[in-house]
Amino acid sequence: xxxxxxxxxxxxxxxxxxxxxxxxxxxxxxxxxxxxxxxxxxxxxxxxxxxxxxxxxxxxxxxxxxxxxxxxxxxxxxxxxxxxxxxxxxxxxxxxxxxxxxxxxxxxxxxxxxxxxxxxxxxxxxxxxxxxxxxxxxxxxxxxxxxxxxxxxxxxxxxxxxxxxxxxxxxxxxxxxxxxxxxxxxxxxxxxxxxxxxxxxxxxxxxxxxxxxxxxxxxxxxxxxxxxxxxxxxxxxxxxxxxxxxxxxxxxxxxxxxxxxxxxxxxxxxxxxxxxxxxxxxxxxxx
Length: 287
Ligand code: SAM
Prior knowledge:
Blueprint: H1 7-17, E1 29-30, H2 35-42, E2 49-54, H3 60-68, E3 71-76, H4 82-88, E4 95-99, H5 107-114, E5 119-125, H6 131-140, E6 147-153, H7 154-160, H8 171-179, E7 180-188, E8 193-194, E9 201-208, H9 219-231, H10 238-245, H11 249-258, H12 272-286
Parallel strand pairs: 2-3, 2-5, 3-4, 5-6
Antiparallel strand pairs: 1-8, 6-9, 7-9
Helix pairs in contact: 2-3, 6-8, 9-10, 9-12, 10-11, 11-12
């Protein structure tokens, strides 16, 4: 079995298959040999588990997942990688390759059809141009998965895993906290990839919650309030909430005060519980 972390092996595969890296598809492949085994272990790959991977590259993470889990389904958009993958993954009978944009795959159907009776985890080195849409999709669709363990840009990791009430948090942070318990597992330097990107990375794990940590009268409205609040994150809440939600400013101020908040509160200062009670009060105010 060829060492897919070895630059010589990667270059020879590129030459033999006429493959060239696509910047626009976020093709920076892992070459640090310690990262993929660690990701696979911490990502929950083990007997009895099925793993969904997004973005195969040359299969360096795929093989570490396949060594540990019962089955791996890897979704890859770039057809020019498939001749390479047919060679690098040839020794494994528990890997299925799906040629598609992950955003077009019916993941509920995929899990039903490919992983019946198995615990399912997602583990991937994500293409960075589409990190947030992929993470949000994995969470919002309420897939029956235990965890989502992904390599993302370091700054994205900090934002996704920021505690509510901190300066780094945003609407995406609130959604991550609502659906999961996030943690940064370890940092990965830019030199761990080929070609090296101009940013550092981190591996994060989102352990999916069985039930949300807060109760709200209307979940869609709760997220609308969160998005409205963070739409002008440095401003005090009455203006952005009033403008985005179409509720009179004084009614927004009344709702803030009745939640024990002040009229000068900003989105980045609120906890998830405070957002939930504010959303319920604003729902009443909207009538
Ligand atoms: N897993 C490999 C590794 O760790 O070396 C490759 C990771 S590379 C950062 C991202 C991979 O995702 C590339 O193989 C790229 O072609 C693929 N990709 C990019 N956009 C995608 C999409 N929308 N759906 C599925 N795969 C995608």
